[in-house]
Amino acid sequence: xxxxxxxxxxxxxxxxxxxxxxxxxxxxxxxxxxxxxxxxxxxxxxxxxxxxxxxxxxxxxxxxxxxxxxxxxxxxxxxxxxxxxxxxxxxxxxxxxxxxxxxxxxxxxxxxxxxxxxxxxxxxxxxxxxxxxxxxxxxxxxxxxxxxxxxxxxxxxxxxxxxxxxxxxxxxxxxxxxxxxxxxxxxxxxxxxxxxxxxxxxxxxxxxxxxxxxxxxxxxxxxxxxxxxxxxxxxxxxxxxxxxxxxxxxxxxxxxxxxxxxxxxxxxxxxxxxxxxxxxxxxxxxxxxxxxxxxxxxxxxxxxxxxxxxxxxxxxxxxxxxxxxxxxxxxxxxxxxxxxxxxxxxxxxxxxxxxxxxxxxxxxxxxxxxxxxxxxxxxxxxxxxxxxxxxxxxxxxxxxxxxxxxxxxxxxxxxxxxxxxxxxxxxxxxxxxxxxxxxxxxxxxxxxxxxxxxxxxxxxxxxxxxxxxxxxxxxxxxxxxxxxxxxxxxxxxxxxxxxxxxxxxxxxxxxxxxxxxxxxxxxxxxxxxxxxxxxxxxxxxxxxxxxxxxxxxxxxxxxxxxxxxxxxxxxxxxxxxxxxxxxxxxxxxxxxxxxxxxxxxxxxxxxxxxxxxxxxxxxxxxxxxxxxxxxxxxxxxxxxxxxxxxxxxxxxxxxxxxxxxxxxxxxxxxxxxxxxxxxxxxxxxxxxxxxxxxxxxxxxxxxxxxxxxxxxxxxxxxxxxxxxxxxxxxxxxxxxxxxxxxxxxxxxxxxxxxxxxxxxxxxxxxxxxxxxxxxxxxxxxxxxxxxxxxxxxxxxxxxxxxxxxxxxxxxxxxxxxxxxxxxxxxxxxxxxxxxxxxxxxxxxxxxxxxxxxxxxxxxxxxxxxxxxxxxxxxxxxxxxxxxxxxxxxxxxxxxxxxxxxxxxxxxxxxxxxxxxxxxxxxxxxxxxxxxxxxxxxxxx
Length: 940
Hints:
It is a single chain. With 940 residues, the protein is mainly beta. It is 3% helix and 60% strand. The protein has a 30-stranded mixed beta sheet that branches. Strands 1, 2, 3, 4, 5, 6 and 7 form a seven-stranded mixed beta sheet that branches. The chain is elongated and about 105 Å long. The chain starts with a strand and ends in a 21-residue tail after the last strand. The relative contact order is 0.11. The model is unreliable at 1-40, 64-69, 117-152, 237-250, 921-928 and 932-936 (pLDDT under 50).
């Protein structure tokens, strides 16, 4: 909570003056002068008089107009008197705490007598015969009522054009004379920011926030100790406002004590893109060809949507993220060390994608249409709508997306005898075409029976049909590289994921001080229908048919997730906050694999691959978290407990035996964050964080099925997977709230990664545990205004990864440094045009058994505001030079070598039209949803 500040001329109240008592009251006693039949709280207030050209000005505080309780109420600096504390001591303490005015600058003039108010208002009786004071004078009044207001030197708030508050805006106070940095603040709840102890002079305000233009305000004077600044409206394009002159440059990244926040709307190239492409451009995030997401070179990232885990395997998570239009994404939160409130999932951290939600009283909504063309066409389209009337708020969104793409993959393998002599070879070209159509819908309602209570419900669902056509041609070579056989494989796969999600939520604000309790219950169901046909043909070098096999499969999967959680929040002391909560989750999955050999056009059961797997998991969790802000130090500490129970049952068939496994483990996950300002202007800040994490296998990874992609490559699950545990440390230095240097390091045990095993001439790809991983390195993330029209954002990392494991009786002991550079240039061209030029470069990087070759890419875009700022047109081109083509080598395979190289449909030109409307008053957002980590492990 924050308040505005006003000054009242002395002469305006000089006719209401009486003589003040000059005797100091005794220490507070509980029975001082209380009226009968009334309850009061003893408090001390300070009347601050500022000498100004022979006149005096009285400092009062004004409660901000946007607050729910007592908006605009005016009062004095002060607060409750603690036990055994004198009124004078209490007033000095409160003054220092509230407006950062040291007691060394306060000279006591006198005291007014005790006064009781019934209505809670204060009557001032002040002496007109005051001496000429050089700095400030304090008159102490002991009043038996609770003081509500707090104050600060400079206070204001920030909103969107539709009057939605904006939290996390970086507000910089600059000297109007030379634009030198003075101090920085970040908007908190209600979009309010505060600067304290600012000297008299002429200043400017600069504001940056991802998804909005950078604002530079007009000069203003600070000639009095307290100033209430007008509301600033951040807009997506440069316009002339009443309060601020806008010279727009969009910010991209902002850092908080426990996370980095990326605003995708800041980049033109995100227009018409999908959520997976947004992640690829986010600092420190890498996405490989199979959709595996890593963070700062570390695998094992948990991906959340609106604080709810996605619970999908890498491939299906990638497909799901491709269905989310960038226009629906509000921000991306990157947490290498998430706080205790979040599930402990993800040994490399959590990426939380927050979706947009309108909160305007009345009508509001938006429409986004985009068309892209690479080798194949694609389109991402979405609409959202919000309406609030009386005590009901209705919201909805829908999207329809088309994503046609391809992968041209070449695989080379060599086989050797135990002595190293060449045995045979294998060269395969695999052209994979994917056709994805997705439809997503969300509808919900919030009910506000009173000012303290909110009850909500939301229903979400999607249907994501995907047709994958795999054309495979291979050459089997002799030891002397002569063609022995030719192999053709054709493998169309028709898969459709359906999802239904239901959320019920409840929030109750216990009091005006910030106590709050909330509860969430979620039900999620995923249904997969999948059918595939693998036709495999073997030829002589002259293409005479030797053998043809046809393997058909039906692979239905269902996943049911039920979660419930309750959270409690309570402010503690001055600037402290305590949180705690409980959560329970129950997951049940059924996976059926029915394989058939088609011989002479007759289907016959194939019991080698057919199977039935059932899996249940229960997790009980509890957490506590505390944070507090001191003058220069911010502290946040948390502890989370999780108890996990797992039961897996492979039913088998007449060939494959039944098998059952059970696991139970209890774990504690501590977190700690420290942030310390080295100077009063907070231009230099140090930070430290520590956290312990767990990565549980996704549900599909523990499914022991084996499925042949061709006769030389099989994919399989692993029911023996153990969870990954990691300990991560970070030490940061931030300069001027613009550049952050991070030293990081950590150790992970039983890391879950893709592993490759060779059996005869067949490669098995399955998730496996890598015994130990160590990493350390340096990252730098910063933004610089090169010119008024040009802003540069740069992320770079230099990290060393070490993997030690024994995989399938092969020793793996590899270490390698890698370097990543991601520059982004944003240009402001006039008032309505923006442009972007960005790219990335990555050296060779080690990920388990895989060493990925260097890749680089360049992207560009331009945007134009239309429809009086309510709409925009954006044109973006990704991978301009068609260089983002990954490949690499595979290590530690018995008597084998392997490498691969891919060409992707990565150069795409996208034209996007966006239009938004809003009319009404802002509502405060609430976070809903309790299935926080389960959705991310569906592994479908």
